[in-house]
Design brief:
With about 325 residues, the chain is mainly α. The chain has helices spanning about 10-20, 25-35, 35-40, 45-50, 70-80, 80-105, 120-125, 135-140, 145-150, 160-170, 175-190, 200-220, 225-240, 245-250, 255-270, 275-280, 280-290, 295-315, 320-325, and strands at about 110, 110-115. It folds into 2 domains: about 80-190, no CATH class; about 195-329, no CATH class. A two-stranded antiparallel sheet has the order 1-2. Helix 12 (about 200-220) packs across helix 13 (about 225-240).
Length: about 325
């Protein structure tokens, strides 16, 4: 009986192409090239490397497993695989945060941590107890420094850390920004020494806030029960007999309720109805749920992408900081 290794090369190549593009392609490909020398040759084929599917969810506690310079992730990234580069950008964000934790633990002022970022939150999700992990992170990040590329120390690579982070900014979903928020800020601090008053910090803060807003609106639009709960919250707040002024009532509302109120008010103005009357009309709210929420998410994504564009522009404008104000690793 013929084995896989005995198949015609063209057929085997086609099978490998199907394998690497399938869900979990990166994991499956990594396994087969580790058990067969013939399959290992495919790991040098640039066309295959560009197509490897990296639909992986990186777990913070295991992120150090990606800090290998001869890994499939690096090979695919160098070949131009955008999915691999996107994942590698995340690894760089978390790796720089790992080193920030090490610095933070060593420097204190009057017995309190000197850093105003929530580095304790970073520490809680990083595998900082892995032996030699800090040294490993240093060696890993050194590979992506721009001066090493220009000096020809790593002539085989075209990867620079800020280019990979820019790709993350360009391709990341709102869920990605929520999850990577603190690591992204820590990366900016680690490589540029920028404070929270810097423009790029402000853009990142706003981008993350819009990401949280989209997440809340998604739930509001997709879950009718939540939508109706928000409607009832709005109505109960307005019926509060405590005598609060309109301003106090606004301040007591959640961000989701305020968003609901804003959209409801726009809808009421379109049809010529007072919103304070409309919130007591269950039929009007039901119709608003069916027809008035269709484009809410589209509008939110539009705003989110506009903020993203501003963030990327600011990031590019500050590239000189990444090139010239890089600390020694």
């Amino acid at each position: 009986m013929a084995t896989m290794e005995q198949l015609p090369y063209e057929l085997l190549y086609y099978i490998i192409l199907l394998l690497v593009q399938s869900p979990g392609g990166a994991v499956a490909f990594a396994r087969i090239i580790s058990v067969c020398r013939q399959f290992l040759l495919f790991a040098e084929d640039e066309h295959i490397l560009k197509l490897v599917n990296f639909d992986l969810e990186m777990e913070f506690k295991n992120f150090y497993r990606y800090q290998h310079l001869n890994s499939l992730l690096i090979k695919c990234s160098v070949a131009g695989n955008e999915a691999a580069r996107f994942l590698l950008g995340k690894v760089i964000l978390v790796s720089s945060s790992q080193l920030r934790v090490s610095e933070w633990l060593k420097v204190e002022w009057d017995g309190h941590p000197c850093d105003d970022l929530k580095l304790s939150d970073i520490k809680s999700v990083l595998a900082t107890d892995v032996p030699g992990s800090d040294h490993k992170a240093c060696s890993f990040l050194t590979y992506f420094l721009p001066e090493n590329l220009s000096a020809g120390r790593f002539p085989q690579t075209r990867l620079v850390h800020y280019q990979l982070v820019k790709l993350f900014l360009s391709k990341g979903s709102h869920h990605d920004f929520i999850k990577m928020d603190i690591f992204l800020k820590s990366y900016i601090r680690y490589f540029t020494k920028c404070g929270e008053s810097s423009l790029v910090f402000g853009f990142i803060e706003y981008l993350v806030s819009r990401a949280h807003h989209i997440k809340a609106v998604e739930k509001l639009v997709k879950n009718k029960e939540l939508f109706m709960d928000t409607y009832r919250e709005l109505r109960d707040t307005w019926e509060d007999p405590s005598g609060y002024s309109s301003v106090r009532r606004y301040l007591r509302m959640t961000s989701v309720a305020l968003f609901f109120l804003d959209q409801l008010d726009r809808r009421c103005r379109t049809v010529g109805v007072d919103w304070q009357q409309a919130i007591y009309d269950d039929d009007f709210v039901e119709e608003f749920w069916r027809n008035g929420t269709n484009n809410l998410l589209d509008k939110e994504y539009l705003v989110f992408n506009q903020v993203r564009a501003g963030t990327i522009h600011c990031f590019e404008h500050d590239l000189y900081k990444f090139k010239h104000v890089i600390q020694d690793l």
